[in-house]
Amino acid sequence: YVVSLITGQEIGTCIVVIYVGFILIQILLLRKEFQLINLTQIIVSFLFGYFTDFAKMVMGDFSLPGYPGKLLMLAVSMVLIAFGVAMYVDAKLINMPMEGLTQAISKKILKGKPFHEAKVIVDCGVVILSVLCSLIFLGRLDGVREGTVISALVVGKVMKPIQKVLVPTIDKYVFH
User: Fold this and answer.
1) Is residue 175 over pLDDT 80?
2) Which terminus of the chain faces fewer neighbouring Cβ atoms within 10 Å, N or C?
3) What is the pTM of this model?
4) Which residues neighbour 41 within 8 Å (Cβ) at sequence distance 6 or greater?
5) Residue 93: Cβ within 10 Å count
6) pLDDT, mean of residues 152-159
7) pLDDT, tens digit, for every residue of 70-82?
């Protein structure tokens, strides 16, 4: 969102560009360990960017009324995101580029730290980068608020209990 504010481009376009950057970083980190199948993340990036713009067009700036309503929407979205990410990461499906980057950083930099812990670290790093970009290019903090920070800190932590239940279930029904 911050890149969209800086460039004036649609948020979906900015998502695609940033996600392709995340894929390039994965390639640099993993080198020969990067599997060509992970290039399908590019397709996922375009789809996600398109559907982000589509959802924004359909939903507009919809939110529940008042600050408590916004907090409720944030809480629900964090649980849904944690569940969705846990599902496709644990099922070993094609990752979203952010999660592919998180796995690469976990493997190469954080030396095998569990995914949910690495996610918090990487998400917080991206939020810090967003804050810096906003301050440098916009001259003010714009596009990052408390919900962004809370999400970065909490989604990975919410994944842990979900994965405790989900991983054995996925192993049982998908891989056996």
Assistant:
1) no
2) C
3) 0.89
4) 19, 23, 94, 95, 96, 97, 100
5) 11
6) 95
7) 999 999 999 999 9
Quick one: which of 116, 100, 85 has its CA closest to 25? 100
Return the amino acid letter for 58.
V
DSSP state letters, 32-46 = GG--GGGGGHHHHHH
Residue pair 50/44 in contact by the 8 Å Cβ criterion: no
Give the number of other Cβ atoms within 10 Å of residue 76's Cβ: 11
Place of tokens 């397709």: 43
Residue closest to 96 by CA, chosen among 142, 147, 48: 48
Residue with structure tokens 């003010």?
140
DSSP string, the chain: -HHHHHH---HHHHHHHHHHHHHHHHHHHHGGG--GGGGGHHHHHHHHHHHHHHHHHHHTT---SHHHHHHHHHHHHHHHHHHHHHHHHHTT-PPPHHHHHHHHHHHHTSSS--HHHHHHHHHHHHHHHHHHHIIIIISS--S--HHHHHHHHHHHHHHHHHHHHHHHHHHHHT--
